[in-house]
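Milestone M4 deliverable, item 7.
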Amino acid sequence: MLRYRNLTIGTAVIALLILCGLFAPLITRQDPYAQNLAATFQPPSAAHFFGSDQYGRDVFTRILYGARWALFEVLLSVGMSLILGVPLGMAAGYFGSTIDSLIMWSTDILYAFPGIVLAILLVAVLGPSLFNTLLAISIFAVPVYARLARNLTLTLKQMEFSEAAHALGAGPFRILFTHILRNAFVPLLIQATLTAGDVILSASGLSFLGLGAQPPTAEWGAMMSEGRNFLGVATYLSLFPGLTITIAALGFNLFGDGLRDFLDPKFHSGRR
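Output delivered:
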């Protein structure tokens, strides 16, 4: 795996993100929500690696705990997109005809809206909260997985193993979930890792606008939103969460690109 630079760097970033989220209480003893008004706007130092905010809360500690929210955003949003999009795409590709037309028309309608605009609209209707934000992000990501699953199903259902299973009497659901989904797993996994970076950026952006996580949640986008009011006094309040968002999104994108190269048979045959 070390021969694939993108995969190596992306894996290291994601592993660091997971470790920071899981072991945040061991890395720092400070409470991310405990206020200390006697230590407000402390610059980065040995006592506060990334400084302290307007309530005296340690920014480094809040960023570590924010890794948990980032992982939660990725798992929930990507998971919901997969659960909704993949079965729809597989049904459209396998059964075709009217089912295919209805599902693809529905995805085309979603594609007609810019993703972030659709997310803002849904959050405005449902109310600002992190869960509603992730639900909105999941909905506008469904067409991506639906179209990918449909294209994969159209190809895989014509392969010899699918035709053999059909000739032996296997039902459509057995063929879909035993043969087609198993062979479509790798492309779907790669797409999920590439989508994860977009999820972090979108969720942080909506939180920055006040539509996602609400204060005092230690979420990176919400932290940037709180810090923008003090850019002239303490630039680090928005700088460090912003850098963390950039690194996390870049890590998932590099991991997805590297995983695609690592698992692509054509790429390996070209190297040989």
